[in-house]
Design a protein that fits this description.
By secondary structure, the chain is α+β, with helices and mostly antiparallel strands. It has 11 helices and 10 strands. It has 2 domains: 185 residues, no CATH class; 90 residues, PDZ domain (Pdz3 Domain, Roll), CATH 2.30.42.10.
C-alpha cells in the first residue's frame, strides 16, 4: 500500500479527485484539438470548464482558458457557428465526413489513451497483481475486520478450524458467508489467536465482506510489457463496461445505476483511502467511462454527432445544419437536466 493514502486528509483527496477529472477532460478535449489542427481546421478556443474565465491566454489564433465550473470543457472550431463568416479552408463544416468523424471520435479515443497511460504506469511501478496471500493488506475504517482488531500483516491461517494457506481460499470463504459468524485463526508475530467476525452483505455484488484487502502478490513489468498489458486491460474494461450497460438497458435499470460527478468523486476518494494505487486505477476506469459515455448516440454527445455524420455519409449530403443544431441544443439541455438530477440524487445518497 502506498504511504500517500493514509497521510492525506479527505480535503486533499477531494482536490486530487478534481485534478483527476481535470486530466480526463483535458485529454478528451486535447483529442478534438489535435486532430482538428492536423486536418487544417481553425480552432478558436480550447477551454476546460464552463462559465466565467479564471485564467487564460491567446496564442496562434487560439484562446486557451480555464473556466469557473469544472464540469466539462470544449473546443470551439471555425465553421461550427452557422452565421460565422470566414475562410472555408479552415472551417470544420468544409472538411470531409471522415475528417470530421476523426475529430469527433478523437475525444473519447483520448480518454482511452489516458486510461492506458495510467495503467501502464501502474504496471511498471506498483506491478500487476497476479494473486493474493492470506495476509491482511489494508483495512477499511469501521468495518468488521478493523472492529475485531485485525491489523495489516496479520495472517489468517484458518477459518472455522479449516486451514487457509492461500489468500484465494480466505476471500472465497468470506464471500460466500454473508451474515454468518466466522471464527478466524490469526497469526501475528509468531503467536496465534482467534477472533469472531460476521461478514456484511454487499448488496451490489451479493457477497460477504469484512472490510479488508488481502496482501497482493505482484509482478512488476518492464515499460514495454506494462504498455502492452495496459492496452489489453483497457480493452477488457471497455468490453465489461459495454456489457454491463447493455444488460442494464435490457432490464430497464440504467438510470438507477447512473452516477454523476459527485458519485464519481466519492468513488475516487473511497478508492484513495486504500492507497494511491487504487486511486490511479479508479481514475483509469473513470476515464474509460467518460470515453464510452461520450460515444452514446445521443444529441450533443460525440456519439450523437457521429450518427449525423454517418447519415451524411449514407445520403451523400449533409443533414440541414440548422436542424442538426437545434437537435443538439435540445440534447444538451436534456443532458444538463440529467446532470443536475444525478448530482442531487448522489448528494442525498452520501
Amino acid at each position: 500500500m502506498s504511504e500517500l493514502g493514509p497521510t492525506l486528509a479527505t480535503g486533499q483527496w477531494l482536490l486530487l479527485a478534481v485534478l483527476a477529472f481535470g486530466a480526463m477532460i483535458f485529454f478528451h478535449e486535447l483529442g478534438h484539438f489535435l486532430v482538428a489542427k492536423r486536418v487544417g481546421v481553425t480552432v478558436h478556443a480550447f477551454a476546460l470548464g464552463f462559465g466565467p474565465r479564471l485564467w487564460g491566454f491567446r496564442r496562434g489564433g487560439t484562446e486557451y482558458a480555464v473556466n469557473l465550473l469544472p464540469f466539462g470543457g470544449y473546443v470551439r472550431m471555425a465553421g461550427e457557428d452557422l452565421d460565422e463568416p470566414g475562410d472555408p479552408r479552415g472551417s470544420f463544416r468544409h472538411r470531409s465526413v471522415w475528417q470530421r468523424a476523426a475529430i469527433v471520435a478523437a475525444g473519447p479515443g483520448m480518454n482511452l489513451v489516458l486510461a492506458v497511460l495510467i495503467l501502464a504506469l501502474l504496471g511498471a511501478t506498483y506491478g500487476v497483481q497476479v494473486g493474493v496471500t492470506n495476509r491482511v493488506g489494508t483495512l477499511l475504517p469501521g468495518w468488521p475486520a478493523e472492529q475485531v482488531g485485525l491489523r495489516p500483516g496479520d495472517a489468517i491461517v484458518a477459518i472455522d478450524g479449516e486451514p487457509m494457506e492461500r489468500g484465494e481460499e480466505v476471500v472465497r470463504t468470506i464471500h460466500r458467508s454473508p451474515g454468518k459468524p466466522l471464527v478466524l485463526t490469526v497469526e501475528r508475530g509468531g503467536r496465534r489467536f482467534t477472533v469472531r467476525v460476521t461478514p456484511r452483505l454487499a448488496p451490489n455484488q451479493q457477497i460477504g465482506l469484512i472490510g479488508f484487502s488481502p496482501e497482493p502478490v505482484r509482478r512488476r513489468y518492464t515499460p514495454p510489457v506494462a504498455l502492452a498489458w495496459a492496452v489489453h486491460r483497457t480493452g477488457e474494461i471497455v468490453v465489461t463496461l459495454v456489457g454491463a450497460i447493455v444488460g442494464l438497458i435490457r432490464v430497464g435499470q440504467l438510470f438507477e445505476n447512473l452516477g454523476g460527478p459527485v458519485a464519481a468523486g466519492a468513488a475516487l476518494v473511497e478508492a484513495a483511502r486504500t492507497g494511491f494505487e487504487h486511486f490511479l486505477y479508479m481514475s483509469a476506469f473513470l476515464s474509460v467511462v467518460i470515453g464510452i459515455f461520450n460515444l452514446f448516440p445521443f444529441p450533443a454527445l460525440d456519439g450523437g454527432r457521429l450518427v449525423f455524420l454517418a447519415v451524411e455519409a449514407l445520403r451523400r449530403r449533409p443533414v440541414d445544419p440548422r436542424r442538426e443544431g437545434y437537435i443538439h441544443l435540445v440534447g444538451f439541455a436534456l443532458l444538463l437536466l440529467l446532470l443536475v438530477t444525478l448530482t442531487m440524487r448522489d448528494i442525498r445518497r452520501l
